[in-house]
Structure formats: C-alpha cells, structure tokens
Amino acid sequence: MKIFADYHMHPQGHKLQPYTFKLLDPWAESCLQKGIVDFCFTDHDRYREGIDFKIFYQWKQKFPTLNVRLGIERDNDPVSGHSGLIWVKENWEKLDFVLGSVHFIGDWPFDRNGFEEGFSKRPIDDIYRDYVKNLLQLIDEGFIDSVAHLDLIKIFNYRPKGKIVDYFKPVLEKIKEKNLCLEINTAGWRKPVKEQYPDEEILFKAVEMKIPISIGSDAHSWVEVGKGFSELLPLMHKLGIREFAVFRSHSRQMVAVS
C-alpha cells in the first residue's frame, strides 16, 4: 500500500519567495523520487503575493507525468486573514484546492515556538473551546475544500481534561454539513506532540460520519514531501480508511490507496 498524493505543501516555506522555476523544481523532483504523482502547493495566504499563476502554469509543463495542482492555505491570521479570504474569493476559479486552518486565538500564534507560555495563562479547556469557536467561524466563512490539522492546538502536547473528540464533534458536524474534507496531517510527528493531526479518536468519528479524507505532509521544505506517509498507512488500515481525496478546480475525486 502507498499514499501517492500530498495536498499540503509550502514551497515558499515561512517567508515570501516569489514563484520561479528554481524554487519549484526541487519539489517536483522530490515527488518523482518518492512516487508522489499527485500534489498541490498550498502556501500560506500571507505569502499570496509570491504566487504567480502564469509562472506556475508554464512550470508544470516540465512535468507531464505529474498531476500538479495549485492551492493555498488560508487561516485566521489577524493581520492577513481577511485580505487572504478576499484574495481566495477573487482567485477561486484559478485555484484547485483551498485548505482552511486556525493558527491564532486572538493575536496569539499558539503553534509557534516561543509562544508556548500562552497555554499556562488560562485553563486549557477554555483554550480548546476558543480554538473550536475559531474553527467553526472559519468554516462558516466558506471558500475552503478541506480543514487542515484539525487539532493543531495540541501541538505542544497540552491536552484538555475531557475526551479530545468531544471538543471537536461540532466541527466534524460542520465539516459534514458543508461537504468538506478532513485532512490527515503527518507534521504532528515532527512536533512535540509526536502524533498525527487529528487524534485517532477524532479520525474514528470522522470515518463513522463518512467524512472524506485528504492527506498532507505540511512540508515547508522539499525534503519533507510525503514525510510520515509510510507511518500513516497502518493507522489508515486500522481505521478502515481505504481512499482519500484529490482535487482539480475544487472538484473532489476519491482515489484508492495504491
């Protein structure tokens, strides 16, 4: 069994880097080497100025054996989130796929190194509830295809007192209502929490609700493309996940794990 698609990749990483052949080439070459034949660039919306549609369309012609898609990850950044949403609306028809995510509670970037102290300033259950409120608001705004790293709030391994799945049931219900995908994100294994996003109990509930799954490595460097996919396969098998989503022009197609 093999996962051959990666729908969460950041060629610009964590800084504005306008699209060029030189920037994008290593990503395609890494995918070819790893047998990933269907992938989507999903840079953070704060770096949308680096996305050049013309360059991208020219560049992808170099790799005719690959299904290369263009997307974006939009979030609730208090500085760039609103303008990012406007950009996504304006460019919706040019994009294949949009991830929706929450990286902020108010102006607190809770998932960034150096900001962990915010978890000790309030009851952890309140933090989780506020995070969920932000997720629900983001989903209601629309213009997304899949919800990324659903329980990112656990990144530094701060856990709520109750069952984690109970906090996220309203979000799963909203995802189902809006006919969106839920992403399985392998980056959590590279973070202090040392597990995939979302939690296994959440995934079990999502499978029970028949919510479609997309898969992403959340690579911020081409060396991270597909990282954790082989480790993910046993969990997918355990949960009965036999297919995942790929996209073209926001049209979802479910494909079997090869």
UniProtKB/TrEMBL annotation:
NCBIfam families: hisJ_fam. Residues 24-187 form the PHP domain. GO terms for molecular function: histidinol-phosphatase activity. GO terms for biological process: L-histidine biosynthetic process. This is Histidinol-phosphatase. Keywords: Amino-acid biosynthesis, Histidine biosynthesis, Hydrolase. Its EC number is 3.1.3.15. Belongs to the PHP hydrolase family. HisK subfamily. Pathway: Amino-acid biosynthesis; L-histidine biosynthesis; L-histidine from 5-phospho-alpha-D-ribose 1-diphosphate: step 8/9. It catalyses: L-histidinol phosphate + H2O = L-histidinol + phosphate. It comes from Methylacidiphilum kamchatkense Kam1. It holds the Pfam family PHP. One of its GO terms (cellular component) is cytoplasm. It comes from the Bacteria.
